[in-house]
Amino acid sequence: MAEAERIIGTPDTPEAGGPEPEESSDAAAPDEQPASRGKRKIAVLFGVALVAYLLDLSSKMLVVAKLEHHEPIEVVGDLLRFEAIRNAGAAFGIGEAFTVIFTVIAASVIVVIARLARKLYSLPWAIALGLLLGGALGNLTDRIFRSPGVFKGAVVDFIAPANFAVFNLADSAIVCGGILIVILSFRGLDPDGTVHKD
């Protein structure tokens, strides 16, 4: 939690001894209040999260209703098919013996993102964190409400590329958000909207 807050930082309090920040390309106009700019980025974050969550939820409901206990559907020959799988582990079927731990981790990610959203002033970071939040919420919903029980539920996976693990849209959102965060970090763009050069 402390590490996450260090990364996000506080927009109007630069870190002591750190490099002088440069304004990013999405900096506010001179007459635009920082609070208003921050509220728009928060709206983007939760908007992206909501879209990712609803897409994941609706796709899983459709898979359970139409595909579970049926033959897989070939989408692109042998390269890609849709196949309903219940996954008690983490993304891509890792660690099936630690379902409760992964549930706690997902809940913690959601709390951290929601807590740090008020310090967010960067549109790309808002999109990245929104993808992470929506994906985490999607899989957490399965952990809570699906069998075999609360906090032990198996996640519904259905996207099955050839020679790869089966996954779902929530996993995709989490991975895309993580990749975007890595790219933004390498480019020196901070969540508070400033750009630094090492």
TrEMBL record:
The chain crosses the membrane at residues 42-65, 85-113, 120-138, 158-184. Residues 1-35 are annotated as: Disordered. It holds the Pfam family Peptidase_A8. One of its GO terms (biological process) is proteolysis. GO terms for cellular component: plasma membrane. Its main location: membrane. Pathway: Protein modification; lipoprotein biosynthesis (signal peptide cleavage). InterPro entries: Peptidase_A8 (IPR001872). Residues 10-19 have a biased composition (Low complexity). One of its GO terms (molecular function) is aspartic-type endopeptidase activity. Its EC number is 3.4.23.36. It is found in: Cell membrane. It catalyses: Release of signal peptides from bacterial membrane prolipoproteins. Hydrolyzes -Xaa-Yaa-Zaa-|-(S,diacylglyceryl)Cys-, in which Xaa is hydrophobic (preferably Leu), and Yaa (Ala or Ser) and Zaa (Gly or Ala) have small, neutral side chains. The active site is at 157, 171. Keywords: Aspartyl protease, Cell membrane, Hydrolase, Membrane, Protease, Transmembrane, Transmembrane helix. It is a multi-pass membrane protein. PANTHER family: LIPOPROTEIN SIGNAL PEPTIDASE (PTHR33695). Belongs to the peptidase A8 family. This protein specifically catalyzes the removal of signal peptides from prolipoproteins. This is Lipoprotein signal peptidase.
